[in-house]
């Protein structure tokens, strides 16, 4: 059974139920998380020049509330490490349009890591080129470095559902790319 939760409450194809909730409504989010086997959260900070802080604050409040359900959070590629151990977002060539979002999700990752095992979490970082249109139908993973250069939305969906069902990376971040 799939419950879709969004700000609009629109029911996508395949969902059994649809609920309208904002990530900043911590009590409502915790209630939903605690009712599910796993909750996949995919949100992004404001991409129109606004502050990313509301998303960071919402995740901090969620972590501090210590829901008992499992979280699978979609992060960004910017916090992944290059071959020298430097975050991708710290490279001067990192796209400026995504820098604020990348720094925000780097902070979110730090918050989850600091929470340790007091919360059941996994953060999934996509390949740097995401999304690309062509799906391979499969994916590869790594831990803190890019798993590959590209990732389709379909392959990301497969990876997210697999993680929700198998709980293979609890308490950690993993990176995913199309195979």
UniProtKB/TrEMBL annotation:
Domain NAD(P)-binding: 13-164
GO-annotated molecular function: oxidoreductase activity, acting on the CH-NH group of donors, NAD or NADP as acceptor
InterPro entries, per database record: NAD(P)-bd_dom (IPR016040), NAD(P)-bd_dom_sf (IPR036291), Polyketide_Oxido-like (IPR051606)
Protein name per its UniProtKB record: FMN reductase
Natural source organism: Actinomyces urogenitalis DORA_12
Lineage: Bacteria, Bacillati, Actinomycetota, Actinomycetes, Actinomycetales
